[in-house]
TrEMBL record:
It holds the Pfam family HNOBA. Residues 189-323 form the GGDEF domain. This is guanylate cyclase. It comes from the Bacteria. One of its GO terms (molecular function) is nucleotide binding. The lineage of its organism: Bacteria, Pseudomonadati, Pseudomonadota, Alphaproteobacteria, Rhodobacterales. CDD domains: GGDEF. Keywords: cGMP biosynthesis, Hydrolase, Nucleotide-binding. It is an enzyme of class 4 (lyase). Its EC number is 4.6.1.2. It comes from Ruegeria meonggei.
Length: 339
C-alpha cells in the first residue's frame, strides 16, 4: 500500500495521525490534527519542528524517535496554544517511516474549547466521544443539582421564615420572640421588653366581625413597625397581645416617649368598610438591667405586671416595672389583661 492509500485509510480510522517518512518529514496529517493549525500547513515540515516531545525527555532526534515503537509519547505543539497530546508510534515496513497516532488525553476538554471541535472530528470508536458525552451529562446533572439545591434552600428559608412569622400581621410570632429573647439573654447587650395589649379589641370583633378585627390588628402592627427601629423586634404573641424588644435601649424616658406615641396613634379611630373601629393600648415595660440573673420568664412576667398596672389605672397608658419595684408592688397584681 502506498502512502497515499495509507493516508486515506488513516483519515477514516484515526483523524489525528501523523505520517512521517524515514527522515521524520511529515508526509500527511489527519484532518482533526490539521484543524488545530488551520493556517499552518504541517505536511513537508520536520516532525520535531512542529511537535515538542515532553516525555521521554532523552529523545532529541528523529532516529531516536523512530526507536520508540510501541512506547507512549507525551507531546506538545511548539506554538500557542501548546495543546498537550499523547501519542503512539508505529513504524512502517522496510523502514519507510512511521505512523504516529495522537490523542488529546485529559486535555480533551481544553481542546474542544480552544478549537471548537465536534464529534465529527473524532473516530467513531474514539473514547473521547464517550468522555465528551459523560462530561456534558455530568455538567447538565450538576447544573440541575445546583438549581434543585437553590430551590430547596429557598424553600427551606421560606419555610423557616414562615415558621417564625405571624401570617396575619407579618410580624414575628411567639416562637421567634422566644428565640430572639434567648439570644439577647445569653449575650451582654442590655435591652428593654415592652408588652402591649389592645384595649377594647374584643368589642371590635363582636360589633363588626373578624374581618374588621383582622384589619385593626394589621393597622396596629404597621404602627408598631413605624414607631420602632430596624434593630427592634416586634412580635404578636397572642390574639391582641404584642411584645416589642428594644435592643440596646434602656433609657426609661425614651421608652416612655415611644410608648406615648404608640398609645396616641393606636387610639385614633380606624375606618373599615364604613365602620369606625376604636381601640386603645395599654403598655408595660421592663428592663434587662433590673435583674441580677436574667431569665426570659422573669422579664416577661415583670413586663406583664407593669401592663396590669397600666390596665388597673384606666388603660390607654404606659407603666414601667421599675416604678412598681420602687413602690414594692411587684407580684401584687394578679389575673390577666382584660378590656
Amino acid at each position: 500500500m502506498d502512502t497515499g492509500d495509507l493516508g486515506a485509510l488513516l483519515e477514516t480510522l484515526c483523524p489525528m495521525f501523523v505520517l512521517v517518512d524515514e527522515t521524520g518529514r511529515i508526509l500527511r496529517v489527519g484532518p482533526t490534527l490539521q484543524k488545530l493549525r488551520p493556517d499552518q500547513q504541517m505536511a513537508g515540515k520536520s516532525f520535531v519542528d512542529v511537535f515538542k516531545l515532553v516525555r521521554p525527555r532523552a529523545v532529541k532526534s528523529v532516529s531516536a524517535l523512530m526507536s520508540l515503537a510501541g512506547a507512549k509519547l507525551h507531546l506538545k505543539l511548539h506554538d500557542t496554544p501548546s495543546t498537550a497530546l499523547k501519542g503512539l508510534i508505529a513504524p512502517l515496513p522496510q523502514g519507510k517511516g512511521a505512523v504516529i497516532n495522537l490523542s488529546f488525553g485529559i486535555s480533551i476538554l481544553d481542546a474542544v474549547r480552544d478549537y471548537a471541535l465536534t464529534s465529527a472530528d473524532f473516530s467513531g470508536t474514539d473514547l473521547a466521544i464517550e468522555l465528551l458525552y459523560l462530561v456534558e451529562a455530568k455538567s447538565a446533572a450538576m447544573e440541575a443539582s445546583r438549581s434543585l439545591n437553590l430551590r430547596l434552600q429557598g424553600a427551606m428559608l421560606a419555610a423557616e421564615e414562615q415558621a417564625l412569622t405571624d401570617m396575619l400581621t407579618g410580624l414575628k410570632n411567639r416562637r421567634a420572640m422566644d428565640v430572639f429573647l434567648g439570644h439577647l439573654i445569653s449575650g451582654s447587650t442590655p435591652f428593654a421588653l415592652m408588652h402591649l395589649d389592645l384595649d377594647y379589641f374584643k368589642s371590635v370583633n363582636d360589633r363588626f366581625g373578624h374581618a374588621a378585627g383582622d384589619y385593626v390588628l394589621q393597622q396596629a402592627a404597621q404602627i408598631m413597625i413605624e414607631e420602632t427601629r430596624s434593630d427592634d423586634t416586634v412580635a404578636r404573641i397572642g390574639g391582641d397581645e404584642f411584645v416589642i424588644i428594644f435592643r440596646g435601649l434602656i433609657d426609661e424616658k425614651v421608652l416612655s416617649a415611644v410608648a406615648g406615641r404608640l398609645i396616641e396613634r393606636l387610639k385614633k379611630p380606624m375606618e373599615f368598610e364604613s365602620n369606625t373601629c376604636r381601640i386603645s393600648a395599654s403598655i408595660g415595660t421592663a428592663l434587662s438591667t433590673q435583674f441580677v440573673s436574667l431569665k426570659a420568664a422573669e422579664i416577661l412576667h415583670a413586663a406583664d405586671l407593669a401592663l396590669y398596672e397600666a390596665k388597673r389605672k384606666g388603660r390607654s397608658r404606659h407603666a414601667l416595672y421599675s416604678a412598681l419595684a420602687e413602690l414594692g408592688q411587684e407580684g401584687t397584681t394578679t389575673g390577666t389583661p382584660s378590656e
